[in-house]
Amino acid sequence: ILRENVRLNGFQSRVEIVESAVGEQAGEVDFYGAGTDGMSRAGQPNPLLPHATRRRVPVVTLDAFAASRNRFPSWILMDVEGWEIAALRGARQVLTQAQVAVEMHPSAWEWSGHSRNDFEPLLADCSLRAIGLTSQADVFGDYGHAHLAPAG
User: Fold this and answer.
1) Which residues contact 49 (CB under 8 A, 6 or more apart)?
2) What is the per-residue pLDDT across 51-66, written as a single tens digit (0 to 9) for each?
3) Which of 116, 122, 126, 125 is nearest to 94 (CA)?
4) pLDDT tens readout for residues 107-126
5) Which pairs with CB-CB distance under 8 Å and at least 24 residues apart come from 10-18?
């Protein structure tokens, strides 16, 4: 569907589709998907998708991907259904150069073996802070969107 959408919009020369998950380290991960449902995710099936199918997919870090292209993004929009911490851990260099908007799924972090106790120190190590964009009371506790901005 993505390839067809890119083709229909005439963006083939501007869009590269990379069939890989992003994570903390290169390798492979089980990916659980249900057709084109946007709640598909890596690591463990989303309990809200009762008929997800498991596939083994490659994992690349955002740092390694950017370095291999010798290009670092200026913006990243991330929606990875609870896999945020793993994806950001593999992006420490990219985070020094890019603005990041992330859809936060705190209730799903435990499915990936993470918690806010992993997220807050990660941001501190990268000199970033999370600013809620969707009026969540607690950016690390409530679902919503956040901008990862320089601390200070």
Assistant:
1) 32, 34, 37, 39, 40
2) 899 999 999 999 999 9
3) 126
4) 999 888 899 999 999 999 99
5) 18/60, 18/65
Cβ–Cβ < 8 Å for 78, 39: no
Cβ-proximal residues to 132 (8 Å cutoff; 6+ apart), any chain: 139, 144, 145, 146
Query: Residue written as tokens 């083709």?
Result: 7
Structure pTM? Answer: 0.89
Provide the CA 36 distance to its chain's centre, in angstroms.
17
Query: Tens of pLDDT along 57-95?
Result: 999 999 999 999 999 999 999 999 999 999 999 999 999
What's the chain's length in residues? 152
